[in-house]
Amino acid sequence: MVATTVSSKSAETSRKKRIQSLEIRKISKAFPNIQALNDVSLDIRPGEILAFMGENGAGKSTLLKILNGDYQPDSGSILIDGQPVTFPNPHSAHKAGIRVIYQEPEIIPWVDVPENIWVGELPRNLGFVNRGKLNQRVRESLTEYGFENILPIDLMGNQLSSAQKQLVEIMRALKSGVSVLALDEPTSSLTDEEVTRLFTLVRKLRDEGVAIIYVSHRLNEIRRLCDRIAILRDGKLITLQPLSELTQSDIVRMMVGREISEVFRGDSRRTTRTVLEVKNLHSNWHRDISFHVNAGEIVGFSGLVGAGRTELAKVIFGAFPRTSGQVILEGKETNIRSPGEAIMKGIGFAPEDRKREGLILIRSVMENTSIAILRQLSRLSFLRGALERKVATSYVEKLRVVTPSVEQPVGKLSGGNQQKVVLARWLAAKPKVLILDEPTRGIDVGAKAEIYALLEELAKQDIAIIMISSELPEILGLADRIYVMQNGRITGELAREEATEEKVLALAMVDNLSVAGDAATS
Q1: What is the mean pLDDT of residues 376-393?
Q2: How does the average pLDDT of the chain come out, rounded?
Q3: For residue 180, what is the enclosing H or E element?
Q4: Coil, strand, or helix at residue 16?
Q5: Residue 261 pLDDT exceeds 50
Q6: Interatomic CA distance for residues 426 and 347, integer angstroms
Q7: Cα separation, 457 vs 479, whole angstroms
Q8: Fold for the domain defined by 4-104+182-191+210-256
Q9: C-alpha radius of gyration, the chain, whole number
């Protein structure tokens, strides 16, 4: 039986008839020094939501890219309705009815929503885009799926929120008659309300007979949404079975190859030497912010979306201005006006959006690791390459970064390994204060445990750590003290021993700041 390459003719067929079966047989794929996939076989069924789970680097993204035509397998085959097919490029996979929506949706910034959805297939009249027909098509589709009020069609691509960009990608797939829809970490930047809407859409598509592949590190989402689960580890398929047959402990054990009974810190560390103190800080986002962080202490910042936590981190780091107030570093008031000054004074910052703000994706692991300490690595204004390589290699090994070499572009690493490179940079810089904004977002259970252990190690080195996290178990398990924010103000402070989810949420949602103290102690 000869594998066929999907053509434009077969694309018309795929729109009339959905795929009835999709099989992956003995797929293997290797990169230099890494066996990304090793003899993986599984089936994807219409009307089912199949979870893909595994640690970063387990092979999930590689498998999706093979399904999407971005990569070609070294061996093995893909069968659609029993017939072998090959996808030399994403366009051919799309024609067959397979769409993969990655974490960074492909949106054209300078065109509106209808043109983004129908890009490449715009209805025309005498050579001109038929705007009336185009807008009517999009309105009908959005109304059918209940998103007419969520996605205004007059918005340009660069005006869309993360959730709206994702919806544009999904609508783009639906108008082409998608049979298999893969979502890669779709909720990583969504609010709870947006997650609920996404789940409603995904279930509707499943009920219509679409096969859904759902990639996520969030076990609660997987358990709420998915029917079966495929767990990958080190490029191999560990299990493929109904989700109802596995406990959460089973899933974690299969993902990481070991039991994780406890990943958080032990007793709270009591320290008295204050490294960073903020007094009565005001900015465009904040009112009267005061807090302190001691040496060797992990201080958590919790709050709902829009509370001002990320903006506070950027004000301290010099990326955003403050209008008044004091920032005191090791007992001396300081006026930090730029991130460069912050780094020079011993403050490090790992931002929430590591791809846009934390890394230079086209640069190597080595360059991203050394960028904060180039002066220390230079002599007479010349960078000592051998020393740079030595430093980068030592931290890559220490943090167990999965990469073929330190010359590998960091953009080609998995999300968890990219985050490790960000942390390697600050380990090398040895900061006095390290600010971490959502340090484990989009990272699997095993990599989280490694990062938690790393934070413990940094605290033992007397680094003052500020950790912003939206995951309450993470905040409660790691922080010595917790500051809770709402609408640009700190509504309360909780010691580790007294903090509970109920108290944190009460402070995060309190309507009247005058009753914040009562909410914390109730």
Answers
A1: 83
A2: 84
A3: strand 180-184
A4: helix
A5: no
A6: 9
A7: 14
A8: Rossmann fold (3.40.50)
A9: 25
